[in-house]
Amino acid sequence: MAALLIQAAYLVAAILFILGLKALSSPATARRGMFLAEAGMFFAVVGTLLDHRVITYEWILIGMVIGSTIGAVMAIFMPMTAMPQRIALSHAFGALAAVLVGIVKYTEYQGEHGILPGPGFMAAIGFEVFFGALTVTGSLMAFGKLQELIQGAPITYKGQNFVNIGLFFATLGLFGYLIFNPSATNLFFVMIALGLAIGVMIVMPIGGADMPVVVSLLNSYAGLAASATGFAIDNKVLIIAGALDGASGFFLSILMSRAMNRSFTNVLFGAVGAAPPASAAATGEQRTVVRYTPEDATFLLENSQSVIIVPGYGMAVAQAQHILAELGDLLTETGVQVRYAIHPVAGRMPGHMNVLLAEADVPYDVLLEMDHINDDFANTDAVIVVGANDVVNPSARYKKDSPLYGMPILNADKARNIIILKRSLKPGFAGEDNELFYDPKTMMVFGDAKQTLTHMVQQVKKKVPA
C-alpha cells in the first residue's frame, strides 16, 4: 500500500511540475505556475518521506527545520533586486546536495552490496558529482560577481581557454576511467576536486554582461546533476524534476545567447568586458551631452501622447521599480499611453525586469518583449530609459569592433525624444561607450534613479486632479 501511495504522490508531483513549468512561460500565468510547482514539490517530499528505506526521521526533521528557516529568512528579508544572487546561491546549495549524496552512495555501495558499482550505476554517480561540483563553485563565483564581492569584469590570463578546455576534457577522461574502474577511490575524489576547480575557472573569465546566460546555464547543470542523483538513488520524481530543470535551463541559455547574437562558445570564452574600448575623452574626441533637470523631463512626458519605459539594471540597483510604476500610472491617468519595453538580457538574470515590475504591480499587458514593441519606437513621442545601457546602445548595429556588435537592441534611438536616467556616463558591463548619450534628441538626467523619479512623480501629481 505504501509503495502505491509513493508512486501516486510522485505521479501527481511530476504532472504538477510540468504544468508549473508550462505556466511559467507567460507573465500572466507565472504566479499560478509557481503555486503548481510548490504543490508538486510538496507531493514529492511527502512521497519520499513514506519510503520504507527511511530509518529515522530525526535528522530529516532537523534538516527540514533548518532549511525552511533559511528559506523563510531569505524570502522575507532579501530584496527583489537581489534575486540573481539568491538564485545563484540556490543553484550552489542544490548542486552541493547532489555531490554529497553521490559521495555517500559511492562510499556506502560496497558496504551494502559487497561488490563494486556497475558501469551504469557508476556513470550516474560520476556524472552527478562532476557536474554537481562544478555547479557549486561556478554558482558561488556567479554570486560573488553579482554581489560585487568579486570584480564583475572578466578575470583572464594568457592561454586561459586552452587550460580550461584541457582540464575539462581531462576530467571527462577520468570520469570515463572510473566508470569501468570504480575501485579507484582516490581518483573519484580527484575528479570531484577537479570539478570544483573547473567551476571557478569557467566563470572567472565571464563578465557581468553575460551573467543572464551563466545563471541559466548553471541552472541547467544543477538540474542535470539532480537528475543523475535520481538514477543513483532510484528516485523517479527526482529524475523527472532534474530533467525538466536541466532541459529548461539549457533552452533558456540558448534563447539568452540568441538575444545577444552570441554563441555559447563566445559567452564561455569571449571574455566580454575584459578590455573596455577607449572612451571619447581618452581618444581626444570632444563629445558632449546635454544635462537636463527632472522638471524638464517631466514637462516632456506630460506633453507626450505615447511613452515607452525601458528598465535596466540601474533601476534594480536603485530599487526604483515602485516609484517608476507610480509614474507610469500617473501618466496613464493624464491620458498618456504608457508601455514598458523588456529586453531579454536586461538585468542580471532571465526575466529580471519582469520580476521587479510584477512586484510593483505593473499590469502584464503593458510589459512588452523586444520583438513586440521594437517597431513602435519610431512612432513614440518619448522614451524614458531607467538604468539600461548596453541593451539600448546603437553601436551594436554598426560598430564591428564593439563587443555588442550584432546584439539585437531596443530601438530607443528611433523615438522622437529620449530621456535617460543615470548616475554617470559610465559604460555598461560590456565596457562600451553608449552612443545614445550623445544623440541630439537625448535628455540626460543625472542622479539616483529613485530620487529622480520621486521628484518627477511629485511634479506630475500637481497636474493630476485629486
Task: Write down the overall mean pLDDT.
Answer: 85
How much of the sequence lies in strands comes to: 5-15%
Question: Radius of gyration, Cα only, in angstroms?
Answer: 25 Å
Distance between the termini: 65 Å
Helix fraction?
55-70%
Tally of separate domains: 3
Order of helices and strands: HHHHHHHHHHHEHHEHEHEHEEH
Major sheet size, sense and barrel closure: 6 strands, parallel
The neighbouring-strand order within the major sheet is: 3-2-1-4-5-6
| Residue runs with pLDDT of under 50 for 5 or more positions | 273-284
Number of strands: 6
Structural class: alpha/beta
**Global geometry:** globular
Number of helices: 17
Report on this model:
With 466 residues, this protein is α/β, with parallel strands linked by helices. The chain has three domains: 1-77; 92-269, no CATH class; 294-461, TPP-binding domain (Rossmann fold), CATH 3.40.50.1220. It has 17 helices and six strands. α5 (119-146) runs antiparallel to α8 (211-233), α6 runs antiparallel to α7 (185-203) and α11 (294-302) packs across α17. The longest helix has 31 residues, at 83-113. 45% of the residues are buried. Mean pLDDT is 85; it is low at 273-284.
Short description:
By secondary structure, the protein is α/β, with parallel strands linked by helices. Helices cover 58% and strands 6% of the residues. It has helices spanning 2-23, 30-49, 58-77, 83-113, 119-146, 160-180, 185-203, 211-233, 236-259, 264-269, 294-302, 313-318, 321-333, 352-359, 370-373, 395-398, 449-461, and strands at residues 306-311, 337-342, 367-369, 382-386, 418-422, 442-446.
